[in-house]
Structure formats: C-alpha cells, structure tokens
Amino acid sequence: QVQLVESGGGLVQAGDSLRLSCATSGDTICFSNIAWYRQAPGKERELLAALASNNYTYYSPSVKGRFTVSRGNVKNTAALQMNDLKPGDTAVYYCNVEECDSGEDYWGKGTLVAVAS
C-alpha cells in the first residue's frame, strides 16, 4: 500500500524559511506531476505550486517568488522550499502526486506550518 508522507513543518518566526519534503512509505511510486496545497483553518484547500513531468511550474500569486517546488534529491520524492514566511502562511500543507504510469492521484495527510509574527 502506498502512502505519501509530508515532513518538515513546524513553528517558525516571520521571515524564516522551511523546507517541506514529500516521500512514500510502504510501496514506492513514480512521481509524475507534483503539487503542493495548503488549508488554513476555516478556509478551503488552496493550490500553491505545481511541477509537471515536463518541468512546467505553476505558482499561486500568494507564494510566487517565495516558494519553490522541486523534485527531491532522492528519486521519487518532492520538496517545497518556503522562504520569507509570513503569518498568513500558517496552514496544513499537503503533497499531491500523480503516478507516472497509472495516473492515480495520491495525497499525504499533511504537515502543519505555523508562522508567528
């Protein structure tokens, strides 16, 4: 069984940086398209950044210039580098991956990022 696991969240001060990672536990899968979302309390889940298999990238205006999505240093992992964090970035962050061959969609359970002012 495949499970996506996000890591790297925590409590930081405004202006700090964090690097989130996304990897599988259990069976491994091939990461095709990768996306990062977040959901703040009382708000809908929001697409932040996406990296397609052809290396096309998308960033939400709210994070463009501060966040960078990438494939991880280890094969079939993903990362989200977050710089200049703001209190408004406080949310649970989710990794979403599309598997290369089947196109099946996988979600992690999220990691909490809290930014203090």
Overview of this protein structure:
Strands 2, 4, 5, 6, 9, 10 and 11 form a seven-stranded mixed β-sheet that branches. The protein has a four-stranded antiparallel β-sheet with strand order 1-3-8-7, with no helix packed on it. It contains no helices and eleven strands. It has 117 residues and is mainly β. A hairpin with a 6-residue loop joins strand 7 and strand 8.
C-alpha termini separation: 40 Å
Alpha-beta content class = mainly beta
Strand/helix succession: EEEEEEEEEEE
- Tally of DSSP β-strands: 11
Which terms summarize this structure?
single chain; 117 residues; seven-stranded mixed sheet
SSE diagram, text form:
Blueprint: E1 2-7, E2 10-13, E3 18-26, E4 31-39, E5 46-51, E6 57-59, E7 67-71, E8 78-82, E9 91-99, E10 105-107, E11 111-116
Parallel strand pairs: 2-11
Antiparallel strand pairs: 1-3, 3-8, 4-5, 4-9, 5-6, 7-8, 9-10, 9-11
Question: Short summary of the structure?
Answer:
With 117 residues, this protein is an all-beta fold. It has no helices and eleven strands. It has strands at residues 2-7, 10-13, 18-26, 31-39, 46-51, 57-59, 67-71, 78-82, 91-99, 105-107, 111-116.
